[in-house]
Amino acid sequence: MKKQYFLLLAGAAILCACNSKNTTAALQVSEPNDTIVQTATQENEAAEQPDMTAPEINPNAAGLITLSQCPTTDKHLSVKLSEDNDEAVICYDGKELQTISDKEGGLVAAGGEVPIYFMDANFDGFTDIFIGPGESRTYSTLLLWNNEKQEFERVGTLSEPTLQGFMLCPESKCVFEGGSSSAFAFDITLSTWEGNKLKKSEHLTVVSGPEAYGNNGVSNKYTLKGTDNSVTVSTDDISRLPELWQKAVEIYDL
């Protein structure tokens, strides 16, 4: 009888020990691994972010990039404009990403089909979108990708840069804009980026001939002004302009 009693006690002890091990193992399995969870979350967030790597565009012989050199299609992005050109729906891989609208002034001032270009306009490595012809006496819209906010930000309205004659200089990380100011004068500005704003650094006025000097307040064909609007070069000889400006004048075919 005592032997049976001791056997029962031993069996109960073994059973308790097994249950204790199973409970501990279950608790260990149920405890989350913070490192694994955090890594998985980071990978998922990275996978959800759109690939906005800018297209590779080789500058022309002058070291500049004109709109005509920029691609009009992108491997991920597409843009659909409204009939009145006052709203742009941006899609990524066919899914709506963002809508940009301007019901008052519109996004562009151009008749007919509006061209759309993809580029790295502010030299940060991400794809930006240029909507409009970028021609003289028109205005266009430039959308810069803000990678931190994961959205496009608009540059260019009737009261901001009109983006006429838009041209990039990757080496100097600057932007040219140029357009006719009258029948006898052509104005070109050279700007650099401050955040998502263009800050004018220099301005060149090119007039057709001496008969137009007085009306445009100049005394030579080429008049270059600095940031303080003071004249730095006034000449009829293009070779006296800085080399970058000579290249710009050549591209604008002045």
A few lines on this structure:
This protein is an alpha+beta fold. The chain has 4 helices and 14 strands. Helix content is 22%, strand content 31%.
Would you kindly provide a written description of the structure presented here, covering whatever features stand out?
The protein is an alpha+beta fold and 254 residues long. It is 22% helix and 31% strand. It contains 4 helices and 14 strands. It has helices spanning 2-30, 34-48, 213-216, 243-251, and strands spanning 65-66, 77-81, 87-92, 95-101, 116-119, 128-131, 141-146, 151-155, 167-169, 174-180, 185-194, 197-207, 222-225, 231-235. The strands form 3 sheets. The protein has a 7-stranded antiparallel sheet, with no helix packed on it. A hairpin with a 4-residue loop joins β9 and β10. The longest helix has 29 residues, at 2-30. The chain is elongated and about 55 Å long.
Radius of gyration computed on alpha carbons: 32 Å
- Please mark out the parts with pLDDT under 50 across 5 or more consecutive residues, or reply none: 1-18, 23-30
Total number of beta strands: 14
Lateral arrangement of strands in the main beta sheet = 1-9-10-11-12-13-14
Overall 3D shape:
elongated
Distance between the termini: 118 Å
By DSSP (H or I, 4+ residues per run), the number of helices equals 4
- What composes the largest sheet? 7 strands, antiparallel
